[in-house]
User: Fold this.
Amino acid sequence: RERMRAICRGTQPHDRRLVCMLKIAGVLLILTGCTGVGLYTAMRYLIRIHLLEEIEQAMQFIYSEIEYAACDMVEIMHMLAVRSNACRMFWCRMEEALLSCEGKLFYQNWKEHITGIEGYSCLKTEELLLLQELGKNLGNMNRDAQLHTIRLFLERLHAILLQAKGEYREKRKISGIVGITAGIFISVLLV
Assistant:
């Protein structure tokens, strides 16, 4: 105990060097951590954009399959599961749910499995509600109503996607700078 107290007080020259090295190591760890948090925040914006783009492509695919190929939802979900990345598990679960014939409505399955989208937590509440609303209207109506619903969804999603890209451009640099600045500030406070 006495030795530790002496080191902390820095009474010996080699003890002062040790304390200084520990402080430098602490400052570097704090700076690295805060910078990482800033970059993580910026990355979440980018994940959101990629996810919205994938959902937009999936809806365009669903629209074309309903319009031109007259496929049913089980076939469409299977094709989407094969060609999708972040939403693959969602489409697989939807296909399985539709094939199992548990008596649930399409919307109930949609709402239950929508959390299976990789990066789901990056989406904003407005986007999640829009996706749930789409599921409510998809699969339960006639062909023309489904196509109309998808067209409306795509219009709204395109506007959201443009807004998300604008937000990313604004906040990409800010997130990194705020992380570094917070690291410096915390380091100054602690040292």
Q: What stands out?
A: The longest helix spans residues 13-69. The two ends are 23 Å apart (CA to CA). The CA atoms of residues 74 and 95 lie 5 Å apart.
